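Support case: user asked for a sample of complex input and structure output to validate their parser. Sending the pair below.
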Amino acid sequence: MDLTPSPREEAYRDEVRAWLEANVPEPYEGGHTIDDPGFVAYLRSWQKKLAEGGFLGITWPKEYGGQGLGPIEQSIFNEEAARVTAPSVIGHVGVALIGPTIAMVGTPEQKERFLSKLLYCEEIWAQGFSEPNAGSDLGSLACRAVRDGEDFIVNGQKTWTSYAQVSDWIFLLVRTDPDAHKYKGITCLLVDMKSPGVSVRPLRMMSGDSVFNEVFFSDVRVPVANVLGEINGGWTVAITALMHERMNLGGAIPVELSQLLAKVIDLARQRGLTDDPVVRQKLAQATLELEVFKRTSARAMSTVGKGQAPGPEGSILKLFWSNYNQCLVQTALEIAGPYGQQMAGNFGELVYQYLRSRGNSIEAGTNEVLKNTIANRVLGLPKSY
Ligand SMILES: Cc1cc2nc3c(=O)[nH]c(=O)nc-3n(C[C@H](O)[C@H](O)[C@H](O)COP(=O)(O)OP(=O)(O)OC[C@H]3O[C@@H](n4cnc5c(N)ncnc54)[C@H](O)[C@@H]3O)c2cc1C
């Protein structure tokens, strides 16, 4: 395989590099959490700028506000964004999983109404799947929607809903036919978070911030026009969204991991530990694994780039990412030594990342469930349950 970049790819890299150097904002000075309204405004403005510059939705079709380019251009952008430590995308739930799902199964009106606003961060989206008694076993969800003329009336609760407190819309899974088989009576609704009857209660994580929330629905009216896909056909829509979520880790995550690895190597230098054989081995292993991750992501993204739906292979990326991130921040804290106990100051962000990383092996599918998916749907082994 010849991996030498073509002149067109070189030119794209030059264009991206020049744009990023001119547009990446100075690092945010305040708290780096969703609880800081200034940080939210900073990230919103960055996402809008990225979309306006043509560097968000790089692989999305042009008619939905994307650039209609391929996974190679996306990888080039990721590498360059990592190089200049570009901020993250606050609307990533929308960009990574909800937008691509609306683009695949939405009506023309839904695509027109939602996709561009989602990309340009005029509207932030939350994913309303998990409930107190339905996480890995999502088919047990109980949030109920009953048809009333041209509306559904929704009652119930979601939990662990990331970014709900700053979201304008939620991609909601509800039970519309309680008598059908558990996977057959589910519908996907696109719900305006400002609808009367929606309330949000932030949950505090051990990292100290409130990334996720409980969301309650009390007699919330949702127009039937906001059903995504078929009524009672929401399970297929949910699986499509989850596959996009796992597959799209291939887009943003290599950027974040490259930045983190660079910081950890820098930290080892500052602490005078680059001669330490154990530290050297851990950093070399992390560098090697990151290269493997990048190549695997690029391969997965090229499947989607050919217009195919993302497959269960995305579970490999998700599993790899959660293990990698947890190991790397653990290594970082070992290198930091006693400074790794500081919740504020120079090492505060590192400690935050360590605490936040514990959720990686739960969010977007637990490690155990992903291993089952890989065994059964990638390797063709018998089901374990
Ligand atoms: C940081 C974070 C952000 C999140 N954001 C969102 C969000 O935005 N929207 C949303 O809808 N959800 C979100 N979630 C919820 C997440 O999807 C669920 O927590 C996850 O699916 C697991 O569900 P659960 O918590 O109910 O655990 P359970 O499903 O009850 O699992 C408990 C334990 O049992 C194991 N287990 C369960 N079933 C099996 C099985 N069949 N085989 C082997 N082991 C099994 C699990 O691996 C786990 O260790 C988020 C979670 C976290 C941590």
